[in-house]
Amino acid sequence: MPKLKTTVLPRKFKVGLQLLPDPMPGADLETVIRILSTAHPEITTATMKGPAIEADAQVWSFSDSIGTKG
Question: Which domain holds residue 40?
Fold first, then answer.
């Protein structure tokens, strides 16, 4: 029987068109969002989607939660 190898894929965060590396790999997502929001304040009100597996990484995306009223 072949041996299976498991690996943890690194996280990356997509803000707009920018793909950012994980600033703190051992931290939970809430902590990472707080860290990233200092440089990208728009993610505090954005909707987070993911992870999607792209090029051997977990990619979490932030999309604007701006909508229309009424």
Answer: 11-63
Instruction: Kindly state the DSSP code that residue 64 receives in the 8-state scheme.
Output: -
- What are the tens digits of pLDDT across the range 43-67? 999 999 999 999 899 999 998 866 5
pTM of the complete model: 0.80
Structure tokens at 56: 């051997």
The number of folded domains in the chain is 1
Place of tokens 């009100």: 45
∠ CA 41-51-35, rounded to 5°: 30
Whether 1 maps to a domain, the answer reads: no
Is residue 26 situated within a structural domain? Answer: yes
Q: What is the DSSP string of 1-62?
A: -PPP---PPPEEEEETTEEEE-S-TTS-HHHHHHHHHTT-GGGGSSEEEEEEE-SSSEEEEE
